[in-house]
Amino acid sequence: GPERLRFDFTHPQGLTRDELKRVETLVNQEIKKNISVEVKHMTKDEATAQGAMALFGEKYGSEVRVIDVPGFSIELCGGTHVNSTGEIGHFKILSEGSLASGVRRIEAVTNVGVYDYVDKKLDILEQLEIQFNAKDKLLLDKLTHLQESHNQSLKTIKELKEKIQSMNAGKMFDDVSELASGLVYKHIAAGDEDNIRKIGDLFIDKYQNGVVLITQEKADKLAVLLKTFKGNNKVNCSDIFKATMSLYGGKGGGKPDMAQGSIKLEHQNEFLKKVNSFLI
Known about the structure:
This protein is α+β, with helices and mostly antiparallel strands and 280 residues long. The protein has seven helices and twelve strands. Helix 4 crosses helix 5 (196-206). The protein is elongated, with a radius of gyration of 33 Å.
């Protein structure tokens, strides 16, 4: 019938595509031989002595039912069975995956299930061929090319965004405050598309004696980054965040020259005042 079959087995890693093909071929060869399946009743010890495999997790009574496909497999089982392997028609593996540590599961279909499965797959393939105006290997080549082109476009977009950001940075970094310590400081509210780490790097490139606090609204959170130059013994970004973050429903940390995290957006003003109190 078209019902799905499940087979669980112990194996340290997933089966490769080739191994699954070999399993499929082996099973289908036995189906084509149309071997008569033998059903016997005996004690569990007699069955085990004959090499019958007990399924783990199953409970067995004093007498067991043994299903024997001569020359191929012998198992203890109480389920329904075919009279001969030919009745199975055809065997197709749908998936193989991890069930638990060291235990794998194969899902497969037989008979009508195989035709249903192949029909659905061919239907999808046909729609793809029409949509991309290419067949068989050409379709695969076209999709591979599209994927590469898409990835390249994403890379170009990222590079262009960074260029725009660098151009905007000139204006963004004006109007810095001079601190009593001789350092320069600025709070920058970044746009939602901006890369705040990159802004931090650009700011310190421009102001070698700088400290910058960058904030960015993300839904109900405020992403925050505090950055200064390496070896600044007047400002420790990590210490400032340790002293402020938890007060405003936030978490984060980092190193003396750069710390990052997020707080609840509603606490933005108090947080800024608190950070300023450590700097100004």
